Structure formats: C-alpha cells, structure tokens
Amino acid sequence: MELKNKIAEAAERVLLTNGLAKTTTKEIAKAAGCSEGSLYNHFQSKEDLFLHVLRGQLKHLMGTLSSLRSLAGQESVRSNLEKVAYAALEDFASSMSLICSVFSEPGILRRHREGFTSRNEGPHRANEAVAAYVASEQKLGRVREEADPRAAADLLLGSCFQHAFQMNFLGNEETPEERIRYAGRILDSVCLLLE
What we know:
Layout: H1 3-18, H2 25-32, H3 36-42, H4 46-57, H5 59-68, H6 77-101, H7 106-119, H8 124-139, H9 149-170, H10 176-194
Helix pairs in contact: 1-2, 1-4, 5-6, 5-8, 6-9, 6-10, 8-9, 9-10
C-alpha cells in the first residue's frame, strides 16, 4: 500500500477514535507505522491530512452524483434519486463526527472554505448536481413543469443529512434495511412534488 494511503487510513481511525482536537500527528504516524517526518512528506499539516480524510468520507455520494446527470431519461426518476439518497445516508452517517468537528476549529473551517473555493467545490455542489439532474428530467417531461429542482434537491439531501445527524447524536446504529425504509419515506414525499 502506498504510504500516503496508509497514513490517510491511520488518520481516519485515530480521528474517529480521538476526535480532531485530541489527535496528534505523532499518534497518526505511530498508527501508520511511519515516522512523523514521513507524514509531512505527504501532508502539510494535521489540518491538511484531516481535510484529505474528510473528502474521502464522501466517496459514495460523490461517485453517485458524478454519474447522476447521465441517468436522465433512464430507469425512473425515483430509482435514480434512490441511488443518491442511499449514498448520502451512508456517507453522512459515517462522516458526521468528522463533518461536525470542522466547526470546532475555526482555522480548519476557514482553510476548508478556502480549499473549496479554489477547487470550485463545496457542499452546495451536491445540491446543484441533484437539481441539474431533476431539471434534465423536467426537460424530458418526466418531472412536472412547476416543480422546483433546487427545492427537491435541498429536501432530499437536507433530509438525509438531518437524519444522519440525529442518528449520530442519539448514538443509534441503523441497519441497511432501516436506512432503505427511511430513504423510501423521503422519496415518497419528494416524488409527490415532482410527479
């Protein structure tokens, strides 16, 4: 395994165990089986490493969103949005503690925002991708003309994020079946607005 990936995986384990504030680069290097200097060969700082780990936590959702627009006109609108809901629920649930820890460190939050701006990224891009997909389906006549694509995206992703936040806050573990049932309830409501 490439050392950078090994360091990132070790950082993820340590961050999820200790939290951002209590994690040190020394602990990460020890967990990765490398020197602290080797860590700095791949990452500028603990914050840089943290942001790398956080981006990796949303890989299912980002992968789903990257292919979403090409699904316009294929399968049903609901089944395409189900893919988004399942990926969002999975990634939000697993990354919530890291997402929330960003707000406890003003410097990291500022650098995270700056990085998003320089890469033309950000959490709003997920909503934009879903809205663009819904607008594409609208043009194909598979979504009502009066429907608001951005509102549908916000309702879907916002509901998934809020649900993951609540589950994490309450310390509740969800089975895949429970997550699927929750996604179904959200999609029932979103699809009522679209069809």
